[in-house]
Design brief:
Number of strands: 8
Shape: globular
Distance between the termini: 19 Å
Oligomer: single chain
CATH superfamily: P-loop containing nucleotide triphosphate hydrolases
CATH topology: Rossmann fold
CATH class: Alpha Beta
Strand order of the largest sheet: 3-4-2-5-1-6-7-8
Number of domains: 1
Structural class: alpha/beta
Radius of gyration: 17 Å
Largest sheet: 8 strands, mixed
Length: about 270
């Protein structure tokens, strides 16, 4: 069974795209067939691998009325085992196009049906909003990963995200599971960051990943050179942390599969 992980937070600047890029790359480096789907109209995940001119078609063409087969937009990246389904700014038009369509939340899920045998992991980068694109990601996914910045306003707005998650589980996707909450942009030198971690832990408890992603200039620089952290700065703290995160993600997914299998058998 393919693990489909939506990386979601409606707040911007929490390291969501950085996590999508480097988590997908870290999983691929574990020799697992991995697909990164960019659903953010800003297309930053896509631009970390390709120039705009190299992406004539995108997820907009898959989810819009054009209904292009998703395999037609997927591109192989320079990272072994890692493919990308890119985004373009045109995705911003999709909200308006899908208004009133009864099957609007299921567009992505339907598009991915035939890909399950092709990939071990699918990682979805979502926009910083709880609109139809994010809802599509949650309906199509098996797991949700929430990056939260270690800041004073760390959990501001997470109530809305948790409520959306609950609503998705209530009807369109009861199998969706919270894989974990990831602390990002952590600065161990400041008391505010430490206080934020305690605040986040008080809300999410054991859902918190042990791995924390530190503030790291290399992580910010690597997309500009169209590289992941593993080729740009393989010895950096950012590379070490995303390797550890990938291990945690894989372990949690495998444990969830065992639990679900046991429930089905019972």
């Amino acid at each position: 069974m393919t693990a489909i992980v939506a990386i979601t937070n409606q707040k911007g600047g929490v390291g969501k795209t950085t996590t999508a890029i480097n988590l997908a790359a870290a999983i691929a480096r574990r020799k697992m067939r991995t697909l990164l789907i960019d659903l953010d109209p800003q297309a930053n995940s896509s631009l970390a691998f390709f120039d705009v001119a190299e992406m004539p078609s995108s997820m907009f063409d898959v989810l819009s009325e054009q209904r292009l087969d998703v395999r037609e937009v997927i591109r192989e990246t320079k990272v072994a085992q890692l493919s990308l389904a890119p985004a373009r700014l045109s995705l911003a038009k999709l909200e308006q196009q899908l208004v009133g369509q009864f099957d609007a939340p299921f567009k992505l899920k339907d598009a991915l049906v035939n890909l399950h045998k092709d990939y071990d992991f699918i990682v979805i980068d979502t926009p910083p909003a709880l609109g139809i694109l994010t809802v599509n990601a949650l309906v199509a996914s098996t797991h949700l990963l929430i990056p939260v910045q270690a800041s004073y306003f760390a959990i501001e707005g997470t109530d809305d995200l948790v409520e959306t998650y609950s609503r998705i589980r209530a009807r369109p996707n009861p199998d969706l599971k919270l894989l974990g909450v990831l602390i990002t942009l952590f600065d161990r030198r400041t008391n505010i960051a430490k206080d934020a971690v305690n605040q986040i832990r008080s809300v999410f408890g054991t859902s918190l990943f042990k791995t924390r992603i530190s503030r790291n200039v290399r992580l910010e620089e690597s997309p500009a050179y169209r590289q992941t952290i593993f080729t740009f700065a393989p010895g950096s703290p950012g590379a070490q942390e995303y390797r550890k995160l990938a291990e945690e993600v894989i372990t949690r997914v495998q444990a969830d599969r065992v639990a679900r299998h046991s429930e089905d058998a019972a």
